[in-house]
Specification:
Elements lengths: L7 H14 L5 H19 L7 H10 L10 E2 L5 E12 L5 E13 L11
Antiparallel strand pairs: 1-2, 2-3
Helix pairs in contact: 2-3
């Protein structure tokens, strides 16, 4: 995740990670950061009442937090509807490599089987 994706949450995450750890974050670090923020958004929505499972579930379905992947929402089958990016590995002047985001290749992409899912 050498270069941030083109959204404010990702740019902030990458800059903060680099400042704290003096290296670039991995995709696993970004996913863990997102997961913690996702859960936190639900906890905040139910005002800390973890027994409110329906409230937690409803809050999580809204995905109301700043994700490093950019804005997204959940489809009827609970798969994310999100952008996907074309990225390439490029060599930097110091001989190391980084990932460069070239373009958005799918905007608000939803999986192709969502219409076959009985979930509402």
């Amino acid at each position: 995740m050498d270069r941030p994706l083109p959204n404010a949450a990702n740019q902030k995450f990458v800059a903060s990670f680099r400042a704290a750890y003096k290296r670039d974050p991995s995709f696993y670090a970004a996913q863990a950061y997102d997961a913690a923020n996702f859960i936190n958004s639900a906890v905040v929505a139910v005002k800390g009442d973890l027994g409110d499972k329906e409230g937690m579930r409803a809050a999580m379905e809204k995905a109301n937090y700043d994700s490093v992947r950019g804005p997204y929402r959940y489809g009827n089958n609970h798969f994310p509807i999100q952008n996907f990016y074309l990225q390439e590995v490029v060599e930097k002047s110091d001989g190391t490599f980084e990932i460069k985001t070239v373009a958005t290749i799918l905007k608000d992409h939803q999986d192709r089987y969502h219409d076959k899912c009985p979930m509402k």
